[in-house]
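Private note to self, pasted from the team thread so I don't lose it. Backbone tokens:
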């Protein structure tokens, strides 16, 4: 802080000078004492200088509304919204989110350091504080091919950036357990600058949690039940209650939140599409859902504000108090969290759900390399056949609606002349992953159950975390056509039926994000959703998001990479064909 700013703030706090702004007639949600207090808020240079009785050059009349701190998303992959950071801000700010902790490992797996730098640059001049946790796992495991590989040496220079605050989710637990140098070096390097390291403890028991916490990894957002959450809290971790587009874990975890444990919980969205952000909301939706499930409204606000700020050591965020940033919301009531006004550093940035900031975001020039990330060879139907040599028993991925986990099932499938044939009646379809970064020619093939698709195929270049092309369909011709189309347009999402493209969403920035505005992306997503209905896809979950996570080989039970079917429990690839029952 500059000397002049400090002197001015003290003068305002002591009432020797007028505040720049004073907020009057509001009910402040005090996240420290769990009280509602009726005092003025004095603001100078975008920071709260005092709570009490103040006068200012500008007065904001809160008209009896509740005033709560700006909301914080504790873990989000902005790329999953499929818009660039500057557009993402326009979507989440009206929902009261003024700070996010982001892990840009999606774009990093495609474009390495260049991708991370783009995310930093594009989030520089927006009314949203975007703090970055550097990706720890690029690639996430050695069992797939990504577009980049980042070492501790690659990452270290980025720690000098003021918004880089730690190391993102450590996914490769086996590597950590074995003390592999590639992850240990990243931890040691991180600890030279900060002690903030995120975990990723999907499916891990208490012994594994001991390993994580002994390595100073202090958060987890992968819990799927309340007991798992408590296991982590008992060992000193913070637990993030996730409610995204595909992973909807909050209601299963809420029973772990009580007056004794609540300060160790915060909220995150992790991965959420822009259409869901616009229709449901962001962290405001998590808060409402928590309240609906019995959490006291002030406790829920604590979880969305001061808990997250303290978890990530953001010492000026998360509260309405002197010395804290003037990021705050006006609410009609606490139960519904109806946000009428959003202020960032004391400036009105959203009103009644609309982004109102007149300032134009600085447009970040996009590196041409990010527009040329699709390098897959053209494939044919013959390239993706699944051959059976002994019978027709197969390892099959069973999707679980609205869950990142899958089931590993073994069942008989249809085989003709030694080749697998998808069955619409049994809802057993073909799944492929095509390496798209370095034209290596790798194609993983598998079988999946639960998509409900009756005809055609869907494909995506969003395939966590290596982001190869992933597709599911009822026939080989449409599968190949869908994959080839994405390679031609620079990446995105597509639906193909009888060789014809029904709908698509180009994602030309690394095959992950659109360079268009969020309204255009929203419109294209609506067209995709209509086309999904036309091919009979399941309405229980978002097929594209579920598809994207079938390529993530660090979440149980059975997944697929460009090298083939992957059994997460034994952490190795397996054949599609299984021994006869």
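Design output:
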């Amino acid at each position: 802080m500059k000397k002049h700013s400090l002197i001015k703030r003290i003068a305002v706090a002591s009432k020797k000078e007028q505040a720049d702004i004073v907020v009057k007639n509001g009910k402040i949600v005090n996240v420290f004492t769990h009280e509602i207090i009726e005092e003025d808020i004095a603001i100078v240079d975008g920071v709260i200088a005092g709570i009490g009785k103040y006068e200012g050059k500008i007065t904001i009349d809160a008209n009896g509304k509740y005033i709560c701190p700006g909301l914080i998303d504790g873990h989000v992959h902005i790329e999953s919204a499929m818009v660039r950071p500057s557009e993402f801000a326009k979507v989440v700010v009206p929902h009261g989110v003024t700070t996010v902790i982001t892990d840009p490992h999606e774009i990093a797996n495609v474009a390495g350091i260049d991708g991370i730098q783009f995310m930093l640059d594009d989030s520089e001049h927006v009314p949203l504080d975007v703090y970055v946790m550097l990706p720890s796992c690029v690639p996430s495991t050695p069992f797939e091919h990504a577009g980049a590989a980042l070492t501790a040496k690659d990452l270290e220079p980025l720690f000098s950036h003021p918004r880089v605050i730690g190391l993102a989710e450590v996914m490769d637990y086996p590597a950590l357990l074995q003390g592999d140098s590639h992850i240990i070096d990243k931890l040691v390097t991180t600890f030279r600058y900060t002690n903030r390291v995120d975990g990723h403890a999907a499916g891990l028991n208490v012994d594994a949690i001991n390993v994580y916490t002994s390595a100073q990894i202090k958060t987890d957002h992968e819990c799927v039940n309340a007991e798992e959450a408590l296991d982590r809290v008992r060992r000193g971790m913070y637990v993030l209650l996730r409610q995204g587009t595909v992973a909807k874990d909050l209601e299963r975890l809420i029973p772990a939140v009580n007056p004794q444990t609540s300060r160790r919980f915060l909220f995150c969205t992790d991965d959420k599409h822009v259409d869901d952000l616009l229709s449901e909301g962001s962290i405001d939706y998590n808060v409402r859902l928590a309240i609906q499930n019995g959490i006291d409204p002030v406790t829920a606000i604590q979880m969305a504000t001061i808990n997250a700020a303290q978890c990530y050591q953001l010492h000026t965020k998360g509260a309405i108090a002197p010395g804290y940033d003037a990021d705050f919301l006006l609410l009609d009531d606490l139960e519904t969290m109806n946000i009428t006004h959003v202020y960032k550093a004391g400036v009105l940035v959203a009103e009644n759900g609309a982004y109102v900031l007149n300032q134009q975001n600085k447009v970040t020039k996009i590196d041409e390399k990010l527009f040329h990330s699709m390098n897959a060879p053209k494939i044919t139907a013959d390239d993706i056949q699944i051959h059976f040599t002994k019978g027709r028993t197969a390892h099959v991925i069973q999707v679980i609606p609205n869950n990142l986990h899958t089931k590993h099932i073994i069942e008989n499938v249809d085989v003709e002349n030694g080749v697998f044939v998808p069955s619409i009646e049994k809802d057993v379809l073909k799944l492929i992953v095509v390496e798209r970064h370095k034209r290596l020619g790798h194609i993983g093939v598998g079988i999946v159950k639960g998509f409900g698709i009756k005809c055609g195929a869907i494909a995506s270049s969003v395939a966590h975390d290596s982001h190869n092309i992933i597709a599911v369909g009822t026939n080989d011709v449409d599968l190949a056509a869908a994959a080839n189309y994405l390679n031609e347009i620079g990446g995105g999402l597509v639906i193909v039926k009888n060789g014809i493209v029904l709908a698509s969403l180009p994602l030309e920035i690394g095959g992950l994000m659109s360079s268009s505005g969020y309204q255009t992306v929203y419109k294209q997503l609506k067209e995709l959703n209509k086309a999904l209905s036309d091919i009979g896809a399941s309405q229980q979950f978002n097929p594209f998001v579920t598809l994207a996570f079938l390529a993530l080989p660090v979440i149980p039970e059975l997944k697929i990479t460009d090298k083939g079917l992957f059994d997460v429990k034994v952490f190795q690839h397996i054949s599609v064909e299984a021994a006869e029952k």
